[in-house]
Amino acid sequence: MNILVTGCDGFIAKNLIKRLFNNPKYNILVINKKTSDKNLYEKLIIADVVFHLAGVNKEIYPKYTYDNNFIFTKKICSFLENNNKKPKIIYASSTQVKLNNTYGKSKLKAENILLNFKKKSGAPVFIYRLPNIFGKWSKPYYNSAVATFCYQIYRKKKVIISDPNKKISLLYIDDLIFNFLKIIKLNKQKSSFIKIENIHSISLLNLVNIIKSFNKKDKIYLPDSISNSLIKNLYSTYISFFSKKDFFYKLRKFSDPRGDFCEFLKNSNFGQISFFSILPKKIRGNHYHNTKTEKFVVISGKLRFNFINILTKEKFSLLTDEKQNLVVNTVPGWAHNLENIGSKTAKVLVWANEILDKKNPDTIFYKV
Question: Is residue 100 over pLDDT 90?
């Protein structure tokens, strides 16, 4: 299948093209500003699907924006009509067609040209009235407010919001691309206008505050609501603006005669992930929790887990090592310790269901 993508240098097109290349059944044809009319027509004549993503949304001269957003569309449709070609056309329009501005007017005119082509030729035409799109490879001060805010906040630049309470609609680039991939296989639907899912509405002030919450000095903290789809996607977009120096960071290590301890990740919703070592013949633990629970897995070495019920005094022990992949739970009301019975340093990964609160640690000493 020959798939033609206009505006191939743009934010949306880059994400789409990289995804299309994953399917060997697709032959990708690309068009940008430098493409000659001859080259354009050679590709249009063999195209089965046209993703018409080219457009100008911010220019100094309004007439340039207005003309370029429909003249190119008219050129495409006129050529296809004159050559009796009926490829599927997917057009990236904008929700701004409902606004009285140059960009919206030009997009609306392009829509009408495409709908007229559909009426005359019977070609399948699908129109997406897109809100603000955000995600990796977006440009600050051009593609969306998200890109601009991520860029400014990461670089500690001043963020100016003209109307903090203004709400904008956001769509994540991967959600859009996923929909695009489905539309390739869709032949007919009653309306040419595609209903878009996963659109989020948010005020500019809330958006800025969320992105600012990502910019923490302590890198081991993840956003509190990272499982929320909008937060997760905003966070992925934010880190896409990282310079190489922030591709990595060093964890703090706490050492004592028993071994080392490092906190890896913290989050108020899912708790804390850490890892630690226990030197041969050393013991960690000797405490119990009232509410906190943990999951341990030995990734190197050999340990004995010892438990005692602080109420009934019932005892329980088990042995495990890196070969077993055994997950050991700590249970509220059972004191426990971890004893290295091997000849080498043991290394252990642990998850706790809450972040350590130094004022209320819920860790009470109890000799096992």
Answer: no
Q: Which two tokens stand for residue 357?
A: 């609160």
pLDDT of residue 227: 85
Catalytic residue check, 103: yes
255-296 pLDDT, tens per residue? Answer: 999 999 999 999 988 999 999 999 999 999 999 999 999 999
Q: φ and ψ at 96, to 5 degrees?
A: -75, 0
CB neighbours of residue 154 within 10 Å: 19
Q: Which residues contact 195 (CB under 8 A, 6 or more apart)?
A: none
The residue from 26, 91, 103, 172 that is catalytic is: 103
Cα–Cα distance, 159 to 192 (Å, whole number): 39
pTM here is 0.89
Q: Is the pLDDT at 51 greater than 90, yes or no?
A: yes
DSSP letters, 223-291, are: PTTTTSHHHHHHHHHHHTT--GGGS--PPPEEEETTEEEEEEEEETTTEEEEEEEE-TT-EEEEEE-SS
Measured in whole angstroms, the distance separating CA 7 from the mean position of its chain's CA atoms is 23
Which domains are assigned to the chain? 2-130 (3.40.50.720), 253-365 (2.60.120.10)
**pLDDT class for 62, splitting at 50, 70, 90?**
low
Sign of CA dihedral 165, 169, 173, 174: positive
Which region among 16-30, 94-108, 166-180 has the lowest average model confidence (pLDDT)?
Answer: 94-108
